[in-house]
Specification:
With 181 residues, the protein is of the alpha+beta class. Helices cover 36% and strands 23% of the residues. It has a three-stranded antiparallel β-sheet with strand order 1-2-3. The mean pLDDT is 95.
């Protein structure tokens, strides 16, 4: 296919294997969007890519990754987990999961503590896994309730940011760090 003009080249991938541009092909009234690929099996595609990469049509703009969707931003925030700091019980410091299942389990333990003023195991301490599966021991129901509150506030803040972004408003996801004191 014959063409006369190639303009606006920008890398279309982070690895530089394709370049997006505008091409004026013979027989078309206007230039069309074109994605030139390094290993294009079609002769004009491979030729355009080689010429663009060699700078024949000017510098190729840098690749710009597409913006994350609100759902992807939310998933990333939840996947980051909740980072717990505790000067009073340093053994609790770590990152804890806050997936829907994690939050459900945290809420169940917190509800039991609120109702019966003790851990579900009936002991004075309670082991809880961090995001890596290592058990961290909460030595008081108060420290677990502070953890549960921090997890609930973090997940709620993430949901609020997700909903705002979905509606077209600006939003910032909350910090995933909670200090239990």
């Amino acid at each position: 296919m014959n063409y006369t003009t190639v303009t606006n080249p920008v890398y279309g991938s982070a690895d530089g294997s394709c370049i997006a541009c505008m091409v004026q092909f013979d027989g078309f009234a206007e230039p069309v969007q074109f994605l030139a690929v390094r290993d294009d099996p079609v002769q004009h595609g491979a030729e355009i890519f080689a010429d663009l990469a060699a700078g024949k049509y000017g510098p190729v703009g840098a690749y710009v990754a597409p913006a994350l969707t609100p759902e992807q931003q939310y998933a990333a925030a939840i996947s980051a987990g909740l980072s717990v700091r505790s000067s009073s019980v340093p053994a609790l410091e770590g990152t804890y999961g806050v997936s829907a299942e994690d939050v459900s389990n945290i809420a169940a333990e917190a509800q039991f503590i609120s109702t019966y003023s003790e851990f579900t195991n009936g002991q004075s301490s309670f082991a809880w896994p961090d995001a890596g599966g290592d058990l961290r021991t909460f030595t008081s129901t108060a420290s677990f309730m502070a953890f549960a509150k921090g997890a609930a506030q973090y997940v709620s803040g993430c949901r609020q940011a997700l909903n705002a972004l979905r509606s077209g408003a600006e939003a910032v996801f909350p910090s995933n760090v909670v200090d239990l004191g």
